[in-house]
UniProtKB/TrEMBL annotation:
It comes from the Bacteria. This is DNA-binding transcriptional LysR family regulator. Belongs to the LysR transcriptional regulatory family. CDD domains: PBP2_Nitroaromatics_like. GO terms for molecular function: DNA binding. Keywords: DNA-binding, Transcription, Transcription regulation.
Length: 309
């Protein structure tokens, strides 16, 4: 940490320091930054006290830099352009930037958002990598800690995290073609709660968007099988008496063919609103604003029947 050293330096002296070291002449340095010669001389004296070095020394051939002055000038060759970028607010150019973009979401987000998002990022920033991390109970902590840039979640997060609604999806029930209720178009709540269920372990063995709603009715689902991802659940479902409840667009991805049937879920379960969430320190960051725009463009490009209930 160098805050102690920086804190005792008058940063208004930095333009004078740069001019003195590059011009190696007090009068020319003063003219360069619009100061009088006496003011520049006073600035040189203050710099000498602060840096504990003469910086410029007079010789028969004119002013020369001290060894410390030479080293500082070398460092300024790198530092000054970086400082100019900081204060100029230079635009972010994704086409020439190599990023590792760290996002998190369940395999729902990976199936629905990842294909379109990865394609957009590959086009706009071909040197960058999109890395999806699996969902787990501490994802939001990782968002707060900066380990994840953006998370996708089926609920709005609380402050201080920021959230933006992406789309709404309805739930459907998927059953084996031989299930006793497979001929129905829809399931009522009583029949639904009377079944054994294949539950996706989003958090603590539950699907919060479904189970929080059902908890209001005082009757939890009876789990027959709990699996960590939707794709594995689809493979495990044929030939069982289980009911799998998933967002409609995933049913379109996975539940094709004659082995499964798709039924409307009970009205009480309703729909799921999907969000992206991030830490507020990234709100105005140009890279993160670009990433959020890429996500927004991706979900806007989804077919209309998949973007809204």
């Amino acid at each position: 940490m160098r805050a102690t050293h920086i804190g005792r330096v008058d940063l208004n002296l930095v333009p004078a320091l740069i001019a003195l070291l590059e011009e190696r002449h007090v009068s020319r340095a003063a003219a360069r930054v619009g100061m009088s010669q006496p003011a520049m001389s006073r600035a040189l004296q203050r710099l000498r006290r602060t840096l504990r070095d003469d910086l410029l020394v007079r010789t028969p051939e004119g002013y020369r830099l001290t060894p410390r002055g030479e080293r500082i000038l070398d460092r300024l060759a790198t530092a000054v352009p970086q400082l100019e970028d900081v204060f100029a607010g230079a635009d972010f150019d994704p086409s020439i930037t190599e990023l590792e973009i760290r996002v998190a979401g369940s395999d729902y987000a990976q199936a629905v958002i990842a294909p379109g998002l990865s394609g957009r990022i590959a086009t706009a920033s071909p040197g960058s990598t999109l890395r999806f991390r699996p969902w787990h109970r501490d994802v939001l902590t990782e968002v707060s800690d900066g380990a994840i840039d953006l998370a996708f979640i089926g609920a709005q997060t609380s402050e201080p995290l920021r959230s933006e609604e992406l789309f709404t999806d309805r739930f459907v029930c998927v059953v084996s073609a031989g299930h006793p209720l497979a001929g129905r178009a829809a399931l009522g709540l009583a029949d639904y709660l009377g079944c054994r269920h294949l539950i996706i372990d989003v958090i603590d063995g539950r699907q919060p968007a479904i189970d929080r709603v059902l908890s209001a009715y005082g009757t939890p689902r009876r789990a027959g099988l709990i699996l960590p991802v939707h794709a594995a659940a689809i493979l495990a479902l044929p030939g069982t008496d289980l009911v799998l409840t998933i967002p409609q667009r995933l049913a379109g991805h996975y539940a094709s063919g004659g082995a499964l049937r798709i039924l409307q879920a009970p009205d009480e379960i309703g729909t799921m609103t999907y969000w992206m969430t991030w830490h507020p320190r990234l709100e105005l960051d140009p890279v993160h604003r670009w990433l959020r725009r890429m996500v927004h463009d991706t979900v806007t490009g989804l077919p209309e029947d998949l973007r809204s209930a």
